[in-house]
Amino acid sequence: MTRVKRGYIARRRRRKIRFFGSSFRGAHSRLTRTIAQQKIRALVSAHRDRDRQKRDFRRLWITRINAVIREKIVYYNYSKFIHDLYKRQLLLNRKILAQIAILNRNCIYMIYNEIIKKEGAKEYLEMS
Questions:
Q1: Can you give the pTM of this predicted structure?
Q2: Are 52 and 63 within 8 A, CB to CB?
Q3: In the chain, which residue ranges form alpha helices assigned H by DSSP?
Q4: 36, 60, 70, 113: which sits with the fewest CB atoms below 10 Å from its CB?
Q5: One GO biological process from the UniProt record (predicted)?
Q6: Mean pLDDT of all residues in the chain?
């Protein structure tokens, strides 16, 4: 019986899997079956953590804004500040507000003054 040489398709598939797992440690970078399992696990984690990353950054931005707001008692709390921003149609997202809060705090006070200038200034002057 003559010897049959296999085609290149399976070898190409395994090479692709091995290339993906080349940065893993131990058997996870050497054994084809283990690499395939780790690849699935890595892709699942990456997909899950992309959503988690969005949540974590939003929480970070909110914490930074709240800290700066409460520091100099511009407002009593974060939720009231955001509510008034929307009410006055000053459309700044949380990412930008957090960057302003960290890099240029005077700008937050300018935003606060802008909120006061708009209609309803009497309410804020009575409260503070």
A1: 0.72
A2: no
A3: 9-20, 32-71, 78-87, 94-103, 105-117, 121-127
A4: 113
A5: translation
A6: 87
